[in-house]
Amino acid sequence: MIVRLGPAHAGWRLDRALADAVPTLSRERLKALIRSGSLQSDSAGAVRDPATKVRGDEVFRLAVPAPEPAHNEPQDIALRIIFEDEHLLVVDKPAGLVVHPAAGNPDGTLVNALLHHCGEGLSGIGGVARPGIVHRIDKDTSGLLVVAKTDVAHEGLARQFAAHSIERRYLAIVSGVPKAAEGTVDAALARSAANRKKIAIVHDNRGKRAVTHWTRLQVFRDAALVECRLETGRTHQVRVHMASLGHPLLGDPVYGRSGKNGRELLKRLNFERQALHAAELGFVHPVTKHRLSFTSGMPPDMQELFTALLV
After folding, report:
1. In sequence order, what are the beta bridge partners of 226?
2. N or C, where is the chain less crowded by C-beta within 10 Å?
3. What is the three-class DSSP state of 311?
4. What are the tens digits of pLDDT across the range 290-304?
5. Each residue of 234-258: pLDDT tens digit?
6. What DSSP line would sit under 126-162, residue for residue?
7. Helix, strand, or coil here: 98?
8. CA-wise closest residue to 310 among 250, 220, 213, 236
């Protein structure tokens, strides 16, 4: 694979610039490929340091190994499939289901369910642990995501995510009532320096630009239903951005806080997750070029919380 880095990447870390130029590969996977000697510079030969600074006028050759067979075990886990053809499928993920295996969640994931449903028919670009996975939503967020069956579909979808042309609409129930009817949060995000398990708004070059457009849909006594449309899709983006406005998601164990009444309501309803649902997903089919759009209604647990807040 030939990768050209232009003036816009000058001064960037090499791994970050490559991740920007090759959206089908994660930054962590690119780091591993660089360290393994899989990256060659036309001018300097093998480059093994991911932190190398980019000049801005360089051409690299990246050798990406053929995907190994997935080591994850297929598991018969029920899936709600909204759409499927030979190239991709759209899944309505329930809250509580992890998207792909990782430390602490070696199985029982969406990937295990997909391997049972699709067999070997998943794109290998995501690597051994993440076959078919183009994007993800948090374990305790419910809603829609698209999965690639072929590498062509994976690459086409990844380009759309990188170009921010994917339509994504979330429903969130937040603590307190935003004074404005709508607004936009444009604030870069990165791992928190104080707590690596959290994402934080940052003001240095570590962060990736993140933009959330939000609209207040329904006002309750001390909460609100908010629609969030994502211009970008960063880890924990809605959760961090809404918390930055002083309106964290109800039930959010990491970024949230609730008053006494809110805590009592969540406990009474046994609601133990952030109140966030990926309600709409739209994109251009990477093979047929047809525009596709899918919606998912509020799941029963969030609907119960919504109804209780109306009282």
Report:
1. 172, 216
2. C
3. coil
4. 999 999 999 999 999
5. 999 999 999 999 999 999 999 987 6
6. T-SS-TTBS----TT-EEEEEEESSHHHHHHHHHHHH
7. coil
8. 220
Strand (E) or helix (H) holding 307: helix 300-310
Q: Can you tell me the distance from the alpha carbon of 304 to that of 302, in angstroms, rounded to the nearest whole number?
A: 5
Among 194, 71, 95, 73, which residue's Cα sits nearest to residue 144?
95
Q: What number of other Cβ atoms are within 10 A of residue 101's Cβ? A: 21
Residues taking part in catalysis = 138
- What is the C-alpha to C-alpha distance for residues 123 and 239, in angstroms, rounded to an integer? 29
Region of 267 (left: φ > 0; alpha: ψ -120 to 50; beta: rest) is alpha
> Which ranges of the chain does DSSP label H, i.e. alpha helix?
14-21, 27-35, 110-118, 151-162, 237-244, 260-269, 300-310
pLDDT number for residue 66: 65
d(CA 79, CA 242): 30
Helix (H, G, I), strand (E, B) or coil at 276: strand
8 A C-beta contact, residue 147 and residue 201: no
d(CA 83, CA 220): 35
Cα separations in angstroms, 308 against 176, 228, 268, 304:
15, 22, 10, 6
> Which amino acid makes up residue 301?
D
Q: What is the DSSP letter of 94?
A: P
Determine the Cα–Cα distance for residues 265 and 250; give it in Å rounded to an integer.
10
Residues making up the chain, counted from first to last? 311
Pairing of strands 167-175, 276-284: antiparallel
